[in-house]
Structure formats: C-alpha cells, structure tokens
Design goal:
It contains 4 helices and 15 strands. It has 278 residues and is of the alpha+beta class. It folds into 2 domains: 122 residues, Immunoglobulins (Immunoglobulin-like); 103 residues, Immunoglobulin-like (Sandwich).
C-alpha cells in the first residue's frame, strides 16, 4: 500500500492561519536577523562582595522595516557553574539601517568565584561564556536569536580600606583632609573611582563626602588615600564640635561609606576576550 504524506496548512478559520501568513510574509520579505556586536565592557564597581559589570552591545537593523527589541534572557557561566543570570526588558525601536544600544548589567559574587579559584589552582584568570536569547519583532512577528561571547575573568581580590583620621589643613580654615589606608592585594594596579559616605562623631553626621577622580594604587601595595573636603558655613559648628571632642576628650570620629574601584586595561582586555598572560 502506498501512502502519501502532505503538509496541512492551518484552517483559514483557525488562529494558526494568521500566524502562518505573517511568518510567510516575513520570510518572503527577506527578513534578516539584527547584527549584534559587543562594543564595550565596563566595570562599574569592585565591591567587597560583588563585581558589577555592564556589557555594551550595538544592535544594527539591516531590514527595510522597523525592528522592535523585546528583551534579553541571559546567563554567564564558567566551568559549568552559573555565575549570573537575569532578564532585561527593552522597548527599544530601531529604524531601518539604524543602530541601537543594548546595555546588559551583570553581578558576580566573590563567594561564587572563590569556589572556582579554589579548584582551578594557581591561575590568573578563568574562562567564561556569556549566552543570551534576544527576542524582537519584525512585521509584527515575534522572533529570537542567540548571542554569545567568551572571555576571561581575572583573579580579583577585594581591596581592604579603613578610615584613619581627619585633620585640619594649615592656613585653610574651611578645608579638611580625610586620610584612609588602602591595601591592594592584587597582582595588578587598581584605579580608585569614587568615595562616598558620611563622617560621624558619636552617631552625629558631621560631613558628607562624595569624591571622584581618585588616585591609582599599585599592585600589592599599601597606600594612604588623602581626600580634601570643603567645609561650608552651615557645617562649621559641627566640625568645631567634632575637633573639640577629638582634642579635649580623645574621641575618634568614624566614617561610613563606600570606596569604589575600577580595573586596569589589562584586566578589561581579558574580560573582552584577550588571552591572559600566565
């Protein structure tokens, strides 16, 4: 007995008919996937518990009609261990021939990396793979594509820093200096990014600090970070009271805040995909 197998199109009355027609329209119109390229990788912060990164992608629409980006489901893993995963929602519309920007945030915990470093031994970097499913619409039809990127995560030890003292500046009545001790245990230098926080005396806020463009700490070095702070008139009374507590009663102020670090170009190049130097 001879059997014939024929493709069966969805019924015109059924909901599948419209979807099939739309898909056929996209295919016959020469639909092309958007051209997605990694443009940059920025280190936002190296904190005591996490490293914050942003992958900066360009998305070029090579089609003759508008491209609508819906979102991106993505993950980052190394040696079979998932280090980060998230979903990015986007309502970006890209006109024909235009280029859009897709910024993908990543958070990697030092605790997760510690397990990998322990099993990897004496290496300066670990390979990673980034995988994402990009969803978009063309001609009203939902489509998706996979984007990948591979690179290396450099071994990063969170720097240690402590507040040491606050002092007056000779000849400057409205200027103080805050002194911090910073230890960089890494085999590469660290650019200091920003310092923000509050100087206190017995839980009373004295000054608010927010400074950028801080100096560079060399590899495996201890450095004294001196931060000048301007004292304005409305804070002069609290500053005078603080120094009275220091000089007459031997009390010490405290500092509660955050010191943010960046990464040198060599570490950034490894994250972008360059082979590490062993």
């Amino acid at each position: 007995m001879r059997m014939e197998m024929k493709a069966k199109w969805p019924s015109r009355a059924g909901p599948g008919w419209l979807a099939a027609m739309l898909l056929a329209t996209v295919m016959t119109a020469g639909c092309q996937q958007p051209k997605v390229e990694l443009r940059d990788l920025r280190v936002i912060n190296v904190g005591p518990q996490k490293v914050w990164l942003v992958l900066d992608y360009t998305v070029k629409n090579t089609n003759t009609t508008q491209l609508n980006i819906w979102g991106l489901e993505y993950s980052l893993q190394s040696d079979g261990i998932r280090l980060a995963e998230s979903t990015l929602t986007s309502g970006m519309a890209i006109e024909s021939g235009a280029i859009g920007r897709l910024r993908v945030p990543l958070e990697i915990e030092h605790a997760q990396m510690a397990k990998l470093w322990e099993s990897a031994g004496d290496v300066v970097a670990l390979p990673y793979e980034f995988t994402g499913k990009l969803t978009y619409r063309l001609f009203g039809v939902p489509l998706d594509m996979t984007i990948t990127h591979a690179g290396f995560i450099p071994r990063i030890e969170p720097p240690n820093w402590t507040f040491r003292l606050v002092r007056k500046v000779a000849g400057e009545d409205n200027l103080l200096e805050l002194v911090f001790d910073v230890d960089n245990p890494n085999s590469f230098g660290l650019p200091l990014a920003t310092l923000s926080g509050v100087l206190k005396m017995e839980d009373v806020s004295v000054l608010t600090v927010d400074r950028s463009n801080l100096p560079f700490v060399e590899a495996c070095q201890h450095a004294a970070l001196v931060v000048p702070v301007r004292v304005y008139k409305h804070k002069a009374g609290r500053v005078a009271a603080m120094f009275e507590q220091i000089e007459k009663h031997g009390k010490a102020p405290t500092f509660a805040g955050e010191l943010r670090f960046g990464l040198p170009d060599s570490a950034k190049q490894m994250l972008m995909g360059a082979e590490p130097e062993q």
